[in-house]
Write a structure and sequence with these properties.
about 280 residues; alpha/beta; Rossmann fold; 2 domains; 10 strands; disordered N terminus
Length: about 280
């Protein structure tokens, strides 16, 4: 019996890994970077592009990528230029830290290549979401003017400026849904995320901006510990439905049925009159 248990456990582990198969792919950007990525196909037609934080890599989202797969979403996790297995020139620690045209700002081209790849898989732009943490959040926000019809964007611990990548550049004109997650214990970051939230609200309008705080964690740690289910639900319904008023009141119904009558000349109706009219 023990021998059977020992044999069955590795078999179940192998089957589990087989069901969660990621493909290693390489994307080519317009400025000739080879971007390493992990691709998992979608079961529901929707995809999430995952952008890691400064100094991290595409494997930064192990728990959340599994949750996406289980929920039916496809994903494409990138090694942003200078990180992980992405190659061209230099690594991120040799990039210029300032300047509107530094390599950090050019990471929007990595997002362009990811969106082109998913389009090649049959995804429409409205079926693609971009999720970024830290630097990845700022890159996601700055990519929005180039892809205004995206399904939405998730910004985890965004800042006003990260390596001179400005979040406001894209967020202030994006009309789509926005999800922002931030730690409530980092006062500076909370304040900056609130400014971004306000700009998103002014651009997108009521019902399209979700703002959530987590007590003491940031970025992917915050996502894994507190926000996974909230983000998954947001991906399913990123925009709150419009609340419509009652279609018509009794008084309006009487008025429209008797167009020649003046509103102040309408007969008073009791509840008994209403019930009789339903017989």
């Amino acid at each position: 019996m023990k021998l059977k248990a020992i044999i069955v456990f590795p078999l179940l582990l192998v089957l589990s890994c087989a069901l969660f198969a990621q493909d290693k792919v390489t994307l080519r950007t317009a400025d000739k970077w080879n971007i390493a990525a992990l691709y998992n196909p979608s079961q529901n037609g929707k995809y999430v592009i995952l952008l890691h934080d400064l100094g991290s890599k595409k494997e930064e989202y192990p728990s959340f990528s599994r949750a996406l797969d289980k929920a039916g979403f496809g994903y494409l996790a990138l090694d942003l230029r200078g990180h992980g297995q992405s190659t061209n020139i230099n690594t991120y620690d040799k990039f210029e830290k300032t300047g509107v045209d530094n390599e950090f700002n050019k990471m929007t081209r990595d997002v362009d290549a990811a969106i082109d790849y998913l389009r090649g898989k049959g995804a429409g732009e409205g079926d693609i979401f971009v999720l970024g943490a830290g630097l990845g959040a700022n890159v996601a926000a700055k990519s929005l003017p180039f892809h205004p019809k995206l399904g939405g964007v998730v910004l985890l611990t965004p800042s006003l400026k990260n390596r001179d990548v400005l979040a406001m550049v894209g967020i202030k004109n994006f009309k789509g849904p926005v999800f922002i997650g931030v730690s409530s214990t980092d006062r500076k970051q909370l304040m900056e995320a609130s400014f971004i939230r306000n700009a998103a609200y002014l651009a997108s309008g009521k019902g399209k901006v979700t703002f959530m705080t987590a007590y003491n964690l940031k970025g992917v740690d915050m996502l894994d510990r507190y926000l996974t289910q909230e983000v998954l639900q947001w991906l399913r319904t990123p925009q709150l439905p419009e609340v419509l008023p009652d279609a018509i009141s009794f008084e309006e119904e009487i008025y429209y049925d008797t167009p020649a009558a003046k509103k102040d000349e309408l007969p008073a109706m009791t509840m008994g009159d209403v019930l009789k009219s339903l017989d």
